[in-house]
Specification:
This protein is an alpha/beta fold. The protein folds into two domains: about 10-145, no CATH class; about 180-335, Archaeosine Trna-guanine Transglycosylase, Chain: A, domain 4 (Roll), CATH 2.30.130. Helix content is about 35%, strand content about 25%. Helix 1 (about 10-30) packs across helix 2 and helix 1 packs antiparallel against helix 6 (about 160-175). The protein starts with 11 loop residues before the first helix and ends with a strand. About 25% of the residues are buried.
Length: about 325
């Protein structure tokens, strides 16, 4: 059974708050440097320097102590909604949560950004409030997806444990509707496929342990020998595991056909050849229309440790993502690090 980092199935707004704070605390525990990089890149100015500073013989007004240890003060007040249901009077009352911190941020977080008229009205009231403050409050309105993307940006391929935490948070967000799945069209999920590559290509399927969370994606890429060698459009996603009463299937997306059942049986047999237990350990099978050959090269020396998500709109520099066959050709002229 999958042990999730983030709780499900409770009152949604309270759970969203608890899970989001847990994600941020896990990031801080994993790497305070990456946590502060995330805060600085998304919420504070370049002058923001929250790390503890150790100084020798810092001159004060009346003396020169041997050493000082200081940290700039900051506070982030968070308001989370399950939709654009922010109320101006509530946000204005939240301003009383601030005192004399040097850096102050009010973070409003929801599945969608705040409606423009509502945002403008609150920003005008906030401007009036800030005119009376020594240190102004910055309002950041963002989405669960944007926050997760920002955290992803400060991680790298070798942050394996934290990547797993973030994947489960994204899985929670998708399951509770905090991130719309309609954006799956722009994401390509890269999977390592060394020993199973030939089987994956011939059967148009890739399998992975069902316990692993993932971001919704329409495109699947297979990595081998320093490059994404094949890509396909996902048309079905089915989990399967052998039980005493036969194979138990769950069609998460797409239709469970006899042909797909047959391919899953072949995958289990292929897994046996490589020492993979696809039978008693539940796996998820990603079926594609067809894998197309490509050569999307990794130009840095280190091999990736696991899954990588690519935003194709950033890779190609356009919102107009071509069909899968043309995309395979386009990726041959691109590279990644």
């Amino acid at each position: 059974m999958k042990i999730h980092y983030f709780q499900r199935y409770h009152e949604k707004e309270n759970v969203a708050t608890a899970n989001t704070m847990l994600l941020l605390s896990r990031l801080y525990s994993y790497s305070s440097d990456k946590f502060f990089r995330f805060l600085k890149s998304e919420y504070f100015s370049d002058s923001f320097n929250p790390e503890i500073v150790f100084t020798l013989q810092e001159k004060s007004v009346d003396s020169i102590p041997d050493a000082t240890i200081t940290q700039e003060s900051f506070k982030i007040v968070v308001e989370i909604k399950m939709s654009d249901w922010f109320h101006e009077d509530q946000l204005l009352r939240h301003l009383n949560s601030f005192t004399d911190e040097k850096y102050k941020v009010m973070l409003t977080l929801a599945p969608e950004t705040m409606e423009a008229g509502k945002m403008k009205a609150f920003e005008e009231k906030l401007k009036e409030y800030n005119e009376k403050q020594k240190h102004p409050v910055i309002h950041i309105n963002t989405t669960f997806e944007a926050m997760a993307n920002a955290i992803s940006d400060v991680l790298d391929d070798r942050d394996y444990d934290m990547q797993d935490v973030l994947a489960d948070y994204l899985n929670y967000c998708y399951s509770d509707g905090l991130i719309p799945v309609s954006d799956a069209w722009k994401y390509m999920r890269m999977q390592l496929a060394g020993t199973t590559f030939d089987f994956n290509i011939s059967s148009n399927v890739y399998y992975d342990n069902a316990e692993r969370g993932f971001r919704a994606h329409d495109t699947l890429g297979l990595y081998k020998n320093k490059s994404v060698r094949a890509i396909g459009k996902v048309i079905a996603r089915i989990t399967a595991v052998e039980t005493e009463n036969g194979v138990k299937y769950n069609a998460e997306f797409g239709e469970l056909t006899d042909e797909r059942k047959s391919i899953i049986a072949e995958a289990m047999a292929d897994g046996d050849l490589h020492g993979y237990d696809l039978r008693t350990t539940e796996h998820r099978y990603f079926f594609v229309e067809k894998f197309y050959e490509t050569d999307y090269k990794k130009v840095t020396p280190r091999a990736p440790m696991g899954t990588r998500i690519f935003d194709l709109t950033q890779v190609l520099g356009t919102e107009d993502i071509p069909d899968i066959e043309e995309l395979a050709q386009r990726l041959m002229s691109e590279s990644w690090t």
